[in-house]
Amino acid sequence: MTLIQTQSRPADADPAHRMAVEVTDEAGPQVCDDMSVEVALAVMAAAHTGRLVVCDQDGQCTGLVTHAELAAVRDSSDYTDRVRLRDLLGDHGSFTSSVTTMAEAEHAMRTRRLGALPVVDEQGSALGILALSR
């Protein structure tokens, strides 16, 4: 897990022009996309978190899943124990670059109705989570 160091900016700098990586929360647990829903829920419970960053076999971020999404899938009539996280990502396979401005990231999140979005580096590794404030 990589800790993000933010750079100091002048107090009068426009917050909309700050880079997304400067205001991210820690990425938290990262799991492989071949993990089952039940195991992912157990990882969340053990980590006391409501979301997981999902990565592929190469360690590149492929998206984010939340406890609410996984619980809804598990409780649906179509659920089987063969459902994997990669099957669920759909639009949640979204992420943003570390060089995206806050204004751009916020616009994308609001347009896609996402509460949180992983921030990735040039290699696709998750650096942190950008979350909209309520």
Could you explain how this protein is built, in words?
There is one protein chain. This protein has 134 residues and is of the alpha/beta class. It is built from 4 helices and 7 strands, in the order E-E-H-E-E-H-H-E-H-E-E. It has helices at residues 37-47, 67-75, 85-88, 102-112, and strands at residues 25-26, 30-32, 51-55, 61-66, 96-97, 116-120, 126-131. The chain has a 4-stranded mixed beta sheet with strand order 1-7-6-5, with no helix packed on it. Helix 1 (37-47) links the parallel strand 2 (30-32) and strand 3. Helix 1 (37-47) packs antiparallel against helix 2 (67-75). The protein is globular and about 40 Å long. The relative contact order is 0.22. Residues 1-12 have low confidence and may be disordered.
Strand sequence of the main sheet, in spatial order? 1-7-6-5
Q: What's the pLDDT, averaged over the residues?
A: 79
- The global form is globular
How would you characterize the largest beta sheet? 4 strands, mixed
Radius of gyration: 15 Å
How far the N terminus sits from the C terminus, by CA atoms, comes to: 26 Å
Sketch the topology as an H/E string, one letter per element: EEHEEHHEHEE
Figure out the total of helices.
4
- Strand composition percent: 15-25%
Helical content (DSSP H or I, runs of 4+): 25-40%
